[in-house]
């Protein structure tokens, strides 16, 4: 499977050699020509790149990577934005640069937008919307957003995907996968960042983001989960005006959550807004296991009546019931300052093997987080602690899944926004009661009964098939051709060595036999001259020499 995947990547790279040349040239111009050479791709570089590379010398390494990503376009900008959430894999200097990546491009011409909409909806633009603003509200690398009005009068926003963007992303991601494999092979110092894993995660995330049907389903599900929190407003989706490339949503008109001056002029209760947001976030993450994966000020609006409107659900995170239980235990560990238990949760989360230096991991976490011990909860930055612990875990080869980094990043962002709105905001205290309830729920009668039912189902299935399996096992055991096969790499090595020794011994006997036969033939003709030697002696001597050479070669074979 790995070979097939590598073969496809190589084929895609050959097929898109022009784009590959462009990518390599951009990185070389920003001072990475030596890495391109180490990857054995120097032949794809154009000449005269040195002068431009020298002009970039005053910039830092992270700055040069970020500038290269910006120049290479949408796919690389999105990759940088994903990397900005992976504090466990990259140094903080890279994270700070990737946060600066701007997802802004030249807007599409209105006629292009019209053509896309009419092709997708199979109707005239005027038959779908009574008004459609040709000037976009925002233009990004994957899509742009326009304000419109339905035939029934409701104000909406229409998200329109850029033409051919899926094909562009597919090409770039396949090339990224190809380059990631070469990086890991020829530039071993990059292996700590796990380039191939990053590209796989990136492709999975981006493939969801460019399918607006998936975003529609995300919105519907999150709206259903949030129905009991009336202060949270999720935009209504118009399914009949939504396709894979078009998304029509209710327009939410409010104040951006980071516009403090406008909030104060509108006499918004900032403290109340923060409490609502924290309550909603904990509900999404800890109870529903489905949460907004791109929470920032641009996606959150304050609506009249101290309500919060949340938009853009292209990226969501998902946590299983087990993961939610683990997160509750981690937060409780922070509440009671039990950093040892926090380390145990990380080890289980990252599926740490027996060879992990757990004592070393625990010691470094304790030393790093010691300054936080004893501080009031309002002064403890939960997101920062969790991300720092994740970075330490990565050093000890405890790999935290990507969805968890979405959670930690969201916690960090919410804490930052919360303390901007309310300097006394304490995220831990907001989630304290919910976490306690969740931990109690792990051992509740209903939960244990539910889990016991699944255990009983599995045991019942096992009881049904076990007698049959045992009967077949004994029938096979009693058969005449029964053989027990034990497979082991060590056994195979021993077997290969024995086979090799046997072949050597056989060749040795043959060599000795041929030389003895030749000697006998010669001894019977001692009185004759060389030219009169029997033909059989020459044949035996030649054969013996050939087998001797073969034996010599076999002796050096592993």
Describe this structure in words.
By secondary structure, this protein is an alpha+beta fold. The chain folds into 5 domains: 2-101 and 171-197, no CATH class; 110-162 and 211-316, Transferase(Phosphotransferase) domain 1 (Transferase(Phosphotransferase), domain 1), CATH 1.10.510.10; 319-443, no CATH class; 446-483; 489-555. Helices cover 61% and strands 8% of the residues. It is built from 22 helices and 11 strands. Strands 1, 2, 3, 4 and 6 form a 5-stranded antiparallel beta sheet that branches. Strands 5-10-9-7 form a 4-stranded mixed beta sheet, covered by helices on one side. Strand 9 and strand 10 (307-310) form a beta hairpin. The two termini are 28 Å apart.
């Amino acid at each position: 499977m790995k070979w097939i995947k590598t073969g496809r990547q190589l084929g895609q790279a050959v097929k898109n050699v022009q784009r590959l040349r462009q990518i390599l040239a951009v990185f070389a111009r920003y001072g990475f020509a030596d890495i391109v050479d180490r990857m054995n791709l120097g032949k794809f570089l154009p000449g005269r790149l040195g002068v431009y590379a020298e002009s970039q010398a005053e910039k830092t390494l992270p700055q040069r990577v970020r500038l290269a990503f910006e120049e290479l376009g949408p796919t690389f900008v999105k990759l940088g934005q994903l990397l900005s959430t992976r504090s466990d894999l990259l140094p903080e200097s890279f994270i700070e640069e990737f946060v600066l990546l701007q997802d802004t491009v030249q807007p599409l011409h209105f006629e292009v937008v019209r053509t896309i909409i009419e092709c997708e909806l199979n109707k005239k633009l005027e038959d779908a919307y009574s008004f459609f603003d040709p000037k976009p509200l925002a233009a990004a690398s994957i899509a742009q957003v326009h304000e419109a009005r339905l035939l029934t009068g409701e104000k909406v926003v229409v998200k329109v995907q850029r033409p051919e963007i899926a094909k562009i992303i597919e090409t770039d991601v396949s090339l990224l996968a190809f380059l990631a494999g070469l990086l890991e092979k020829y530039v071993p110092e990059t292996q700590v960042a796990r380039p191939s894993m990053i590209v796989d995660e990136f492709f999975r995330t981006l493939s969801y983001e460019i399918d607006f049907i998936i975003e529609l389903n995300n919105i519907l599900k999150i709206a259903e989960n949030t129905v009991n929190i009336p202060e949270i407003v999720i935009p209504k989706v118009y399914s009949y005006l939504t396709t894979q490339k078009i998304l029509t949503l209710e327009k939410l008109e409010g104040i951006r959550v980071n516009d403090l001056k406008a909030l104060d002029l509108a006499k918004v209760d900032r403290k109340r807004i923060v409490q609502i947001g924290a309550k909603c976030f904990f509900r999404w993450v800890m109870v529903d296991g489905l949460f907004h994966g791109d929470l920032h000020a641009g996606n959150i609006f304050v609506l009249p009546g101290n309500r919060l409107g949340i938009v853009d659900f292209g990226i969501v995170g998902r946590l299983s019931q087990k993961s939610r239980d683990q997160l509750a235990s981690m937060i409780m560990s922070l509440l009671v300052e039990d950093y040892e238990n926090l380390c145990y949760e990380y080890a289980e989360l990252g599926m740490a093997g027996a060879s992990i230096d757990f004592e070393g991991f625990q010691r470094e976490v304790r030393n790093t987080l010691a300054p936080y011990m004893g501080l009031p909860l309002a002064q403890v930055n939960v997101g920062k602690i969790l991300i720092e612990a994740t970075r330490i875990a990565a050093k000890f080869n405890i790999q935290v899944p990507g969805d968890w980094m979405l959670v930690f990043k969201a916690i960090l962002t919410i804490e930052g926004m919360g303390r901007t709105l309310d300097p006394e905001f304490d995220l831990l205290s907001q989630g304290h009661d919910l976490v306690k309830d969740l931990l109690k729920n792990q051992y509740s009668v209903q939960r244990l009964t539910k889990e016991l039912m699944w255990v009983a189902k599995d045991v019942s299935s096992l009881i049904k098939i076990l007698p049959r399996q045992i009967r077949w096992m004994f029938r096979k055991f009693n058969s005449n051709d029964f053989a027990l096969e034990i497979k082991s790499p060590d056994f195979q090595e021993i077997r290969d060595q024995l086979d090799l020794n046997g072949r050597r011994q056989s060749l040795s006997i043959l060599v000795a036999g041929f030389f003895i036969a030749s000697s006998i033939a010669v001894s019977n003709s001692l009185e004759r001259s060389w030219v009169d030697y029997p033909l059989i002696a020459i044949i035996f001597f030649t054969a013996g020499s050939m087998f001797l050479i073969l034996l010599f070669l076999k002796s050096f074979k592993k």
